[in-house]
Amino acid sequence: DTAVSQTPKYLVTQMGNDKSIKCEQNLGHDTMYWYKQDSKKFLKIMFSYNNKELIINETVPNRFSPKSPDKAHLNLHINSLELGDSAVYFCASSQAPGTSGGRTSSYNEQFFGPGTRLTVL
Amino acid sequence: RKEVEQDPGPFNVPEGATVAFNCTYSNSASQSFFWYRQDCRKEPKLLMSVYSSGNEDGRFTAQLNRASQYISLLIRDSKLSDSATYLCVVNRDYGGATNKLIFGTGTLLAVQP
User: Does the structure show a pLDDT above 70 at B86?
Assistant: First the structure.
C-alpha cells in the first residue's frame, strides 16, 4: 500500500550514460514533482506536472527530461550523466491547490517517495 | 543568499531539553509555511503547518511572523526519537495548478540520552 514509490532505490553508473528513474503514486493526486537533494542536503524542486502537463521547470539542464504518461506516473530520464548529477532524487505528489468555493486553496500536502540515490562515477 | 535560511546546526541536546529552531525567508510573496522532518536517508515528511496565530501539536509549537518574515519551531521535552533534520519550508502558489515548495537547508537535531 505504498503511496509514492520510486525505482530504483540506488543507481550507480558511469559518466556519459543515460538512465531513467520511475515514480508512481496511488493516491489519486493530479500533481507530481521531482526534487534533487545534493550532497549538502539542500532539497530543490526540479519539475512539477499537473495532469501530465509541465508547470514548473526550474532551469534544469535539458539533459533532464521528465515524462508523464498518465497522472499516476512521472518518470525522469537523464542523458549524458555528469559527476554533478550525483544526488538523491525525490519524487512527490499532491492534489493541486485548485479552488474551493471560488477561493484558491493554497496548499495540499506533498507526499514524498523514498528517494533514488544516484552516484555517477 | 538562499530564499529560506536556517542555522544548519547540529543542535546537540539532552533528553528532556527544550530546543528552538529559527528560520527566515526573503520572498514576501510566500503564502504558506511549514516544518518538515527528514530522518537520515529517508524522505521529508510534513511535521506541521505554521500559522500567524501560532499553533501547537503536542510537544511542538510553531510560530510565524509575517512582518519580519520569520518562522520558528519549539520542541519541548525532547525525545531520542526527535533526532532528525528539521526543514523550514515556504510555499508559493502557481495559480491553482501546483505548489512550489522552497526548502531551507535544514537544522540537524541530535538528542542525547
Answer: yes
CA B52 vs. chain centroid, Å, equals 14
The whole-angstrom separation of Cα A37 and Cα B107 is: 15
Tell whether A39 is within 8 A of chain B (Cβ). Answer: no
| Cα–Cα distance measured from residue A106 to residue A119, given in angstroms and rounded to the nearest whole number | 36
Residue B31 has pLDDT above 60, yes or no: yes
To test the contact with chain A by mutation, choose from B7, B32, B98, B107 the residue with the greatest count of A C-beta atoms within 10 A, namely B98
Cβ–Cβ gap B97/A99 under 8 Å = no
| Contact flag A41-B100 (C-beta cutoff 8 Å) | no
Residues 6+ apart with CB under 8 A from A102: none
Do the strands B4-6 and B19-25 form a parallel or antiparallel pair, or are they unpaired? antiparallel
For chain A, which ranges sit under pLDDT 70? 1, 98-107
